[in-house]
Structures are given as structure tokens and as C-alpha cells.
């Protein structure tokens, strides 16, 4: 048994090393280079890019309130009346528990049933 355990440990270690190497090559991680004298290079400032959204060019000069007013006028954003938590409370789904097994005690409901 100890020899088989050692062999399994070695096999698992090799498999883990192979997976790590595959992950490194897929992620494009570069190996560390030797430290040497670096030449002073000046970095250029990058221009601020806009969001990659369709129609961004049309709204880039507008402030948030103007955008919201436009969305409301086009019926994209709607004001929803306030709701209370008691509006969402319902009955326990007994049919669902009966479909599983009648002899078992009903288990806690899932998030979908709670909703």
C-alpha cells in the first residue's frame, strides 16, 4: 500500500505540473527575464478612450441627467412604483415536494421557489 500511495502521489504531482504549464502557456504569461541595466525610455501618455458601446459618440458630450431624460422620453427607462417585501411572500409549493418523495420531510425551498 505505501508504494502504491507514493506512486499515486507522484502521478498526481506530475499531472498538476502539466496543468500549471498548460495554464501558463494559454494565459501568455512571460517568464521572468534576467535583470539588467534598463535604458530610460519615455512613455507616451495614452489617450482616454471612450466606452465601447453602440451610439457612444452621440452621448459622449451629454451629462447623466440628459441621458436619463432621453431614455425616459423614448420609453426605454420606466419608473416602477415602489414595492414592499410582503408583496413577494407566497405559499409553500407543496406539489413540488410531493413530486420528489412523499415519505421524506419537505426540504428547504430553493431560491427560485422563494422568489
What series of H and E elements makes up the topology?
HHHHH
Separate helix tally: 5
Inertia-based shape: flat
Q: Which stretches are poorly predicted, pLDDT < 50 over at least 5 residues?
A: none
User: How big is the Rg?
Assistant: 30 Å
Mean pLDDT: 76
The main sheet comes to:
none
- The helix-and-strand class reads mainly alpha
End-to-end Cα distance, whole Å, is 52 Å
Total beta strands: 0
Range of strand content: under 5%
Helix content: 40-55%
Q: Could you walk me through the main structural features you see in this protein, from its secondary elements to its overall organization?
A:
With 115 residues, the chain is mainly α. It has a domain at 85-114. It is built from 5 helices and no strands. The protein has helices at 2-27, 56-59, 64-73, 94-100, 111-114. The radius of gyration is 30 Å and the shape is flat. The relative contact order is 0.04.
Amino acid at each position: 500500500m505505501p508504494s502504491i500511495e507514493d506512486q499515486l502521489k507522484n502521478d498526481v504531482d506530475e499531472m498538476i505540473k502539466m496543468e500549471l504549464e498548460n495554464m501558463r502557456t494559454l494565459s501568455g504569461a512571460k517568464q521572468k527575464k534576467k535583470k539588467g541595466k534598463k535604458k530610460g525610455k519615455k512613455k507616451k501618455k495614452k489617450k482616454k478612450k471612450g466606452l465601447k458601446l453602440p451610439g457612444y459618440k452621440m452621448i459622449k458630450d451629454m451629462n447623466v441627467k440628459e441621458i436619463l431624460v432621453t431614455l425616459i422620453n423614448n420609453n426605454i427607462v420606466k419608473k416602477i412604483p415602489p414595492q414592499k417585501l410582503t408583496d413577494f411572500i407566497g405559499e409553500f409549493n407543496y406539489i413540488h415536494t410531493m413530486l420528489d418523495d412523499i415519505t421524506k420531510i419537505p426540504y428547504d425551498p430553493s431560491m427560485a421557489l422563494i422568489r
